Amino acid sequence: MPSSRGRAAVHIVDVVIVGAGAAGLSLARRITGGRLGGGRALSVALVDAPAGPLRPPARTWCYWEESGGEYDDLLAASWDRLRVTAPDGTAATARPHPLRYKMIRSTRFEEHARTLLHRSGCRRYEAVVDTVSDLPGGGAEVRGRDAAGAEFRLRARWAFDSRPGRPGPARTTLLQHFRGWFVHTERPHFEPGVADLMDFRTPQPARGLSFGYVLPLGPREALVEYTEFSPAVLGTAAYERALRHYTGDVLGLGPFRVTATEQGVIPMTDARFPRRTGKAVFPIGTAGGATRPSTGYTFAAAQRHTRAIADALARGRTPLVAGPHPARSRLMDAVLLRALDTGRIDGGAFFSGLFREVPSHRLLRFLDGGTRWWEDVLIGFRTPVGPMLRTVVELPAVRRHPPPPAEHRAAAR
């Protein structure tokens, strides 16, 4: 029950979750209504930023898994075929059975989670959080200001913080940044069963790579994005020019109207992400390393991570669980990022070659960190072996540096 101390009310719960994005909502719905170590009911609070610039805009989250997943009822669309188009226009289409590529809109996910959390008794607060820190006697405290500017304080046995922060020192730091249009064309143009993951028929930046990304929602509707992996974001006008070129000169869509937009920045870094930031404070989501450095995908890893945390709490254990991505995957990502950033490999040729030569279901499992070591070796032989080996050899000697100032708000795939 809330208690009073000084000027600000101090709310007390077992678990507090800061941030109502994919990771925060997923963890809240997994643990609300549960029991602490099989004993008494677990009290949970979710703190979200008030409406305004600190609350992320509507966006889409994509991932792959078999049919029958826990969020299938919430999907905006899914695809059983994937396509990657090389810079020369050569396209490779694959069916990664039994996996499907799936898309959820954040608004639908949030609506669903909000209903479940209300029914199960999760306490919801709106506040701008300044600090999440340990208390001297144990537990954690969240401090900030509510929408009216009054001081906000909340104490809990465990705190989970999904607020994105600036990545730590890294050998390589790139940004995946993009802008997308939801388009409605006058004539049928899209193949509803095929998702274009990467179309490299876009002008390439001097450093990094760019590609188009097309998720059909029907014969005349799709999400069309222009994406770059590069050191710095563009201005909105530059993204708009790139999208006009891609939709007109490359795709030849003809007349269409834009019904909605989305834009985001995802860190691609080999920085180390801590599993805990205090005895009772644990980062989750992008802040906890859920974003796969080589691809920018976050949603599926956030589900694995929050599932493991919920299991630890249910068993009465300290929720210090393994990171969202295994060490072997993080090492391979560090090598790839370094090879891309140094220009040793051509990004368009690299990714289109992988998709063409590696069975698609194995490649997707690899990108999720679900392959065995011998499968990783086989995939490695489908890459430019010389440049990749040179990068492996030099990587231990490359110094880590703080990332340059940039916008690091994540908008997870």
Could you characterize what this model shows?
By secondary structure, the protein is α/β, with parallel strands linked by helices. It has a domain at 3-57 and 105-168 and 271-314: FAD/NAD(P)-binding domain. Helices cover 26% and strands 32% of the residues. The protein contains nine helices and 17 strands. It has a seven-stranded mixed beta sheet with strand order 7-6-13-14-15-12-16, sandwiched between helices. Strands 2-3-9-10-11 form a five-stranded mixed β-barrel. Helix 1 (22-31) runs parallel beside helix 2 (106-120) and helix 5 (327-342) crosses helix 9 (385-394). The longest helix is centred in the last third of the chain and has 16 residues, at 299-314. The chain starts with a strand and ends in a 19-residue tail after the last helix. The model is unreliable at 1-6 (pLDDT under 50).
Biggest beta sheet summary: 7 strands, mixed
What is the C-alpha radius of gyration, as a whole number of Å?
A: 22 Å
In CATH, the architecture of the domain at 3-57 and 105-168 and 271-314 is 3-Layer(bba) Sandwich
How far apart lie the N and C ends? 38 Å
As residue ranges, the low-confidence spans are 1-6
CATH top level of the domain at 3-57 and 105-168 and 271-314 is Alpha Beta
Query: Structural class of the helices, strands and pairings?
Result: alpha/beta
Order the strands across the largest sheet as they lie in space. 7-6-13-14-15-12-16
Quaternary structure annotation = single chain
SSE topology string: EEHEEEEEEHEEEEEEEHEEHHHHHH
